[in-house]
Design goal:
Length: about 130
């Protein structure tokens, strides 16, 4: 994954008005068709999939559940650090899959998700 001169800003991260991300990112709920990936790609535009950009809310909800269950609470800085690591690690894995398979980041996100489901099924079995 290349180093960009700006921070990738998933939904929970706040951007200041003067910040101008150089990397477009997907809006919630897949507002562009998969065919748009080809158009963006032909213009040299990389779009981070919406599933990554908007994963922060679900991830932080999970953090809240974990903290409440353990009766141990993190500071906002700790939450942001954990969230950033998870989101950037996921993006790194998707980026590598995209390059290795020669597919868009959107398709790579689905590939990674399917691989994780298959691995979980192999390791844990099928729960009904």
């Amino acid at each position: 994954m290349p180093d960009w001169p700006t921070t990738i800003a998933p939904a929970p991260f706040r951007l200041k008005r003067r910040d101008r991300p150089t990397l477009p990112h997907g809006l919630p709920n897949g507002p562009t068709l998969p065919e748009a990936d080809d158009i963006f790609g032909s213009r040299g535009i990389v779009v981070v999939p919406d599933v990554i950009c908007n994963s922060g809310g679900v991830t932080v909800s999970y953090f809240e559940w974990v903290q409440d269950f353990a009766s141990y609470f993190w500071t906002e800085d700790e939450i942001n650090q954990r969230l950033e690591k998870i989101v950037l690690d996921a993006l790194e894995q998707i980026w590598q899959t995209s390059e290795r398979r020669g597919v868009s980041l959107r398709t790579a996100a689905f590939v990674v998700a399917c691989e994780r489901i298959l691995t979980a099924h192999e390791e844990r079995g099928l729960y009904l």
